[in-house]
Amino acid sequence: xxxxxxxxxxxxxxxxxxxxxxxxxxxxxxxxxxxxxxxxxxxxxxxxxxxxxxxxxxxxxxxxxxxxxxxxxxxxxxxxxxxxxxxxxxxxxxxxxxxxxxxxxxxxxxxxxxxxxxxxxxxxxxxxxxxxxxxxxxxxxxxxxxxxxxxxxxxxxxxxxxxxxxxxxxxxxxxxxxxxxxxxxxxxxxxxxxxxxxxxxxxxxxxxxxxxxxxxxxxxxxxxxxxxxxxxxxxxxxxxxxxxxxxxxxxxxxxxxxxxxxxxxxxxxxxxxxxxxxxxxxxxxxxxxxxxxxxxxxxxxxxxxxxxxxxxxxxxxxxxxxxxxxxxxxxxxxxxxxxxxxxxxxxxxx
Length: 350
Fold this sequence. Notes:
Elements: E1 5-9, H1 14-25, E2 29-33, H2 37-42, H3 49-58, E3 63-65, H4 72-82, E4 86-89, H5 103-124, E5 130-135, E6 148-150, E7 155-157, H6 178-198, E8 202-207, E9 209-211, H7 223-233, E10 237-240, E11 247-252, H8 253-265, E12 271-275, E13 282-284, H9 285-296, E14 302-305, E15 315-316, H10 321-326, H11 336-349
Parallel strand pairs: 1-2, 1-4, 2-3, 4-5, 5-8, 8-12, 9-11, 10-14, 11-15
Antiparallel strand pairs: 6-7, 11-13
Helix pairs in contact: 1-8, 4-5, 5-6, 7-9, 7-11, 9-11
C-alpha cells in the first residue's frame, strides 16, 4: 500500500522536526520545508542546519524543500507538486521581542506566509487536514487582567474561573499583543476562516511554552532551552520584570506531535485548541532556576531588569479540557522534570 505524505513547514525547528520524526515512525513519507530563516532572525546561535541534517540521517528518503513561505509562486506550485495527505505548518518568525525590529519580515512570514499556504492548499484539495501552530500571544496581555495572587516563587490566578487555565473562548480583542502577536492573530484568523468558509479541516494550536531537547533556544525565543543552556555554560541569565515569578506551562514537543496525529486521524473544521502543559506542568522563572540547579549541580547566575517585556504575560497556562474531550486518547505524557532532564542532556551532547 502506498504510504501517505505529510508536508511539514519549519521542519528544522523544534516542533517541525518532532512532527517529521513522529510521522515517519507512523509510516508516512515526510516532506520538510525550511530555509533556515531562524539563522537570519537570531544569528548563528539560531541556526537549524544541524537539525535538518539530523532529519536526513534519521528519516529514510527525507525530502527537504529549501523554500521560503513568503514566496507565493513557489508555495502555489509546491503543494500540488508534492500532493500531501496532510500539512503541518510550524514555520514562523517566533520572537515576541524580535518582531518590533523586523516588522515587515515578521508580518510577511507569519501572516502572508500562512495565507500563501492556505490558498495553495485550497486550490489543491480542500479535504486534507491543515494544522497551524499559533500562539498564546493571540490573547495579548488580557490574561494579565485576571485577578492574581503573589506567592513566594510565582504568580497564580486568584479567580475560580481560571484555576484550570485559559480556555479557547478567552478574548483576543482590544489588548496589547506585540507585533508578533498581531501577525500571529492574522494567521490564526485566516486558518479559522479557510476552515469555515471553504469547509476545510483546519486546526489552530495556540501554544504555551512548546519545548523539548531539539530546540535551538536563544534569549529572544525558547524560554526553557535557553535557560538550561545558560545554566550549563554558567552564563548570566536576564530576568525581565515581574520579580521572576512569571508563570508558563511547558509542553514537550513529543506531546504536541501526538496531538497533531490525533487531529489528522479525526479532523474537525476550524477548531482552536490551547495546547500547553496545563497547570501540572507550570513553573516560574525562579522555580525553573531551582529545578535545573538540582539537576546540574550548578547554581544559576542571573541579573534582574525591572522592565518587563511589553505585552508579556504575568501568568499563563492552558486549560486542556477541550483537547482531552475532543481527543480522549491524548494526554500529557512528559512531566516537567522529564523535559528538563532531556533538554539538559541534549545540550551536554551538543
